[in-house]
Design goal:
Elements: H1 2-29, H2 38-50, E1 55-58, E2 62-68, E3 71-82, H3 109-125, E4 131-139, H4 148-154, E5 165-176, E6 180-182, E7 185-188, E8 190-199, E9 203-204, H5 214-225, H6 227-232, E10 239-247, E11 254-255, E12 258-267, H7 270-290, E13 294-301, E14 306-308, H8 310-324, E15 329-331, H9 341-347, E16 350-358, H10 379-395
Parallel strand pairs: 3-4, 3-5, 5-16, 6-15
Antiparallel strand pairs: 1-2, 2-4, 6-16, 7-14, 8-12, 8-13, 9-11, 10-12
Helix pairs in contact: 1-3, 1-10, 3-10, 5-7, 8-10
Length: 399
């Protein structure tokens, strides 16, 4: 029974592979920023119409679709793909390079969306063989706060009917194409945006005694805040604090009056996360005051940590091993990146797994969020077929 299902899905995934590649390249060529996915949303709706799959608009530019099997069953699952791109100027020299200046699918959401459309095609064709409902969540705005997942949930994506499982996948250049990876329990980190300004007294760089140097104060704050990771966090609780933007608009001989800083804080425990926020604010403001300046420290609370439901993830991993062979299914470590799929994982039983996109010829090896990011497109056959297989196994298909 399982062998027949697997072979049928693999054949269908192979047959539609060129079409999925075409869809992915179209989306890659026409990326749109978070919550502005108007063309992408229309493309998804048109694709669903061609498959006779009903849909509705949700969360602004989001799309919620559904496929109900012909056999009797009240089981419900949800499959999710995100659709937005990043504000990056693409450097790839391919015929599907972004035509939207300064916007690029550098995180693989074009692959996620085209893959779910391919999965939908397979599931629609196999309707006579299963029962239950499969909700398709084409989500906007994963890349920026508050995260499109919050809006999808707010607008009822997980209700009427409520899914017993929410499943998503994400491309990974760290994994070879043809392989996937799973982790049960805590998988991805929470994410908070940090901004702070340090105010001093500007003046001539040759007369520091007459000034209150916000650059020096900022330097002390940035270094001291690393104690949050190295001395305040429990060694068993992964924590990351990084600063990527520092603006001090002075000159070689000008001490500015203020400095602006941006960074990110990542953690895997909510209680510690809140305590760390308190510690950072107290340290930064205290250091600035002790050096004669002032610090305004702001933390914008972002996505929670992503929790893969252990029994569900165990089942999905076993389905992947059936479909691919155990040698092609990896056990993953904690990943300190953040994903708004975490909101689904906090609201329902959920599993988020990684899809390998690294090719043997160097394709698909550039980092996520880089200007040269691309994928090994052979992975798009696996991405569509495996998710279809997982969905039908979860629904208890009998063929």
């Amino acid at each position: 029974m399982t062998f027949r299902l697997k072979e049928e899905i693999k054949k269908m995934a192979g047959d539609i592979h060129p079409s999925v590649i075409d869809k992915r390249r179209y989306l890659h060529r026409h990326p749109e920023l978070s919550f502005k996915e108007f063309n992408t949303s229309a493309f998804v709706k048109n694709s669903l119409d061609e498959m006779d799959i009903p849909w509705q608009s949700i969360a602004g530019t989001g799309v919620l679709a559904g496929i109900t099997g012909d056999m009797p069953s009240d089981k419900v699952i949800a499959l999710r793909a995100d659709m937005d791109a990043l504000p990056i100027t693409e450097e790839n020299k391919v015929d599907y390079t972004s035509v939207n200046k300064g916007v690029m699918h550098a995180c693989g959401h074009d692959a996620h969306t085209s893959s779910l459309l391919g999965t939908a095609f397979i599931l629609q064709k196999l309707k006579p063989h299963y029962g239950g409902t499969i909700k398709l969540l084409f989500q906007p705005g994963e890349e920026i706060l508050p995260g499109g997942a919050t809006l999808m949930i707010r607008d009822g994506a997980l209700e009427n009917p409520r899914p017993g499982a929410v499943i998503g996948q994400h491309v990974s250049p760290a994994i070879d194409a043809g392989m996937v990876g799973f982790r049960s329990g805590k998988f991805m980190a929470s994410m908070d945006e940090i901004t702070f300004r340090v105010f001093g007294k500007g003046g001539h760089g040759a007369q520091p005694q007459d000034n209150i140097d916000p650059v020096l104060i900022t330097s002390h704050i940035i270094v001291a805040l690393q104690q949050v990771v190295s001395r305040m966090a429990h060694p068993g609780s992964p924590t990351v604090l990084s600063f990527g933007k520092v603006i001090a608009n002075g000159a070689i001989n000008i001490i500015p009056s203020e400095v602006y800083v941006e960074g990110t804080f990542r953690a895997m425990e909510e209680k510690w996360r809140m305590k760390a926020h308190e510690n950072m604010i107290k340290m930064a403001t205290g250091i600035a005051e002790s050096m004669g300046g002032r610090c305004e420290f702001k933390i914008s609370k972002g996505y929670p940590f992503l929790l893969n439901h252990e029994p569900l993830t165990g089942d999905l991993k076993s389905y992947a091993e059936e479909y691919l062979g155990k040698e092609n299914v990896l056990d993953l470590d904690i990943w300190m990146a953040a994903e708004d799929f975490a909101y689904y994982s906090q609201a329902a039983n959920a599993c988020f797994y990684l899809l390998g996109i690294r090719g043997k010829d160097g394709m698909g090896t550039s980092s996520l969020h880089s200007a040269t990011f691309d994928i090994e497109e052979s992975a798009l056959s696996l991405s569509t077929g495996l998710m279809a297989y997982i969905a039908l196994k979860r629904l208890g298909i009998k063929i």
